[in-house]
Amino acid sequence: MDNFNNALNALNSLSKDYEIFVPSLNRKLKFKDVTTKQQKNIVKCALEEGTSGLSFINLTSEIVRDNCTESASLLVSDKNFILTCLRALSISTSFKPYDSDSTVDLTPILNKSTALPDTLKTTEVTDGTVTILAAIPFVTEDIAINNETKKKLSSITNAKDVTREALGEMYINEIIKYVKVIKVGNAEIKFNEATFNQKTQIIEKIPISLNSKLIDYINNVKQYERELLTLPDSKVTISVEPAFFTV
Amino acid sequence: MQFYLTFTQPSTNNSFNISELTFAQYRTLNKFIGNKNNNHIEEYFNHIIRSNSNVNSFTNFDKFLILFLLRLASVSSEIEVTSGSFTKKTSIIPILNQLQQINKSFEKTFQYEDFVLEVNLPKKLFFNDIYDPLCFSIQEIIINNKPINYNSLTDKEKIDIFDKLPSSIITNLRAYHNEVTHVFKTCEIKLFNEDQAFTITPFDNNMFELLKVLFTVNLKSLYELQYILVSKLFYTAEYIDKNTLVENLILKNILEAEMNQLKEERQKGVENKPAGYK
What is the value of ipTM here, to two decimals? Predict the structure, then answer.
């Protein structure tokens, strides 16, 4: 046991820190190396994954959260960019996309320092009666809501319903992640004070026109994320999926 | 002094004395195989190698060859293979000869900025997890010129240590596995016919599965053999247990031959009786 503890202590000295640009903070933060355990979990997660893909999403969110050695609130829009940089620094800058015969060099992504535009950080959508204040969720919020979704999905026992239910739940929960405050007249509902079930009930009742506006906002954030992960010369967009972490 | 066989380790050409596989060990091994717990089966394979050789540092390929040799010498040099409704007995000697041609040393060292990894073929015969072969290929980790004595750790501790290593090592370990696998793939095993070849590598469970096939026998037949030798020839159970299966089968065959002879003589006696006698 002493030998094991000594080995663990010695291993701690191996942990390397990398400085990675965080778009939402417009500065670099220190992140630890991806460990073999984390890489193992990603591959296992891909092998065990069901309909939703939520295990992989949460696992990678946890890596971003746990490997950041500084105190900071990271946004979901930072996540895939940080993961790509961590992959390039910890594993290799060379990557072969599954739909391509040649490898790409991830260095140009590592060198990016495009800050998240203020116009994307928050938004307000309204139909005249109901006003919604939305913002990009924190990584920690994303993990919490995904865990709630996973719990709900695991209670569906009828195999035929799983895919349909999963898609429905994930659609609603994706919107919940972005909503911060809903104002109706003088009443104001702060989403951080509501339970998960209350949030679901409220989102299911908002007018479709508002829903569409929220979806547009979320799509703009996703488009910005994709641009961050696009290599300038080849125009190849990196897709962060389990295969991305295997060499 | 106990009878022993000589095992020559292909990678070093060093020779080791290995005691033969006793009937008791063979019977216990079959109980483990019948119980289908692969971790227990592996533990018992290791127990046989340890107690019959007094060596604890063999790689899984060495262990495989030792067990193969024990099977050949103490059980039978043939294996019965079945394909559909067709059954054929085939000699396992050519397979052992072929595998012994893999006589390279697979030791390798990977240097990193602040640590060194020494790798070799794993010692484990059975892998529970797809990452086990990578983890158990590591023989030593040297951090700041100090070895951590990796091989003295338990399997669980080794996995915990492996999990904390930087993921960049996986790329090198995978390349090492591909290199070794390439050597092993050149050795095709043909058990049934020329068209059905398979290969073994030190990084999958094929070796382990083949060993299970080689040592599997109907357990009832072993108890029947024991019963015959105790009840008809009055050997003690201890004596039978210390013999090999082959030796016990020889004793049984002698008994059967003797009984057949008696039967024949009795038959002749009936035929030669004078007229008037029934």
Answer: 0.75
